[in-house]
Amino acid sequence: MKLLVDTHLLLWAAADMLPKKAKLYFTDKNNMLFFSSASIWEIVIKKTLNRSDFNVDPVVLYKGLLDNGYMELTISSQHVLAISDLPLLHKDPFDRILIGQARAEGIMLLSSDKTLSKYPAVIYVSSN
């Protein structure tokens, strides 16, 4: 199965802190894992805000994702257009573009955000 991994799960994976249910998707050799350039963008923004609770180096994370076999999904106009008819269940623009990418590419979005699970094509994994 092709899975687009949301930003939060990418960070948990990098920190080796994935919930048990999520680990099953990450370790299944039949799954192809993708990350979005939107996630890297979101991480860069948080890093540049110098938040004391956020010390992820986006360059190291990006290289680590590629080194570990993740494939990058860059944002296209098709992805943006795929969110034009989404209901406003979730207003975070980064999460909305992840949904658009998953919809346009015909893949599943793997997320730890329960609100996103209300959209089709989202696999929700709790943090427990």
Compose a concise summary of this entry.
The chain is α/β, with parallel strands linked by helices. It has helices at residues 7-14, 20-27, 37-48, 58-67, 77-81, 93-105; strands spanning 2-5, 32-36, 71-73, 108-111, 122-124.
Question: How is this structure best described in words?
Answer:
By secondary structure, the chain is an alpha/beta fold. It has a single domain, classed as 5'-nuclease (Rossmann fold, 3-Layer(aba) Sandwich), CATH 3.40.50.1010. It has six helices and five strands, in the order E-H-H-E-H-H-E-H-H-E-E. It has helices at 7-14, 20-27, 37-48, 58-67, 77-81, 93-105, and strands at 2-5, 32-36, 71-73, 108-111, 122-124. It has a five-stranded parallel beta sheet with strand order 3-2-1-4-5. It is globular, with a radius of gyration of 14 Å. It starts with a strand and ends with a strand.
Descriptors:
Rossmann fold; alpha/beta; 15% strand; 128 residues; five-stranded parallel β-sheet; 44% helix; 5 strands; 6 helices; single chain
